[in-house]
Amino acid sequence: MELSLEWDDVEIQSTGPAAPTPALGNDAPGLPISTRKRPLTVGTHFSGWESKGQSLASTGIEHRIKWTAETNSHCKSIISQNFIVDRMYGDVGSINFESLEPVDLFAAGSPCPSYSTAGKKQGSADPRGALLFKTTEFLRVGQPTCFLFEQVSNIRSKKFGAVWKQWLSEIKDAGHIAAWKGMNSHEHGVPQNRPRVYICGIRKDCHSVARPFR
Known about the structure:
By secondary structure, the chain is an alpha/beta fold.
């Protein structure tokens, strides 16, 4: 499967059903969410005010935020006042990913000014832009069951084409099946023109997922 295809053009499938893991019982990370006997575990990087957790709560998905990573003190204050989080980290670059507790869902939206049309367009040459690849580093080390990434749509432009292809390639090399879709917030009832690209995926050894962007 080509990762460059939009989700609307391809149905994502794993290499087959996950192998049974009796020793882990019904809490095995590879089991479908509908069969779980525990909340979905979540970890976020570049957490902001934790909109990912708010979205899960709004949709009624039972979950537990195991860890967040955010440097902005105001955002961290909002998180601590509104969410129960097992552990809050600061700078993503200073975290030992091997020490992070495994999670079912990993969500991250790395800093966008380096790729934005409104910024200096320095891309991965900007330290903030280079943080993009911290997302795939955790995929490789932490092996979450599924993930959701967000970035400005301009990262798909000709100027940043090499970065975009490298990002997709690293996701695949980390052992995950994924695809992307461009969306704008104003198309979903939000009074804001905010074009973004979302990459959603699942670990190859887990059960298949079809068309989550529909």
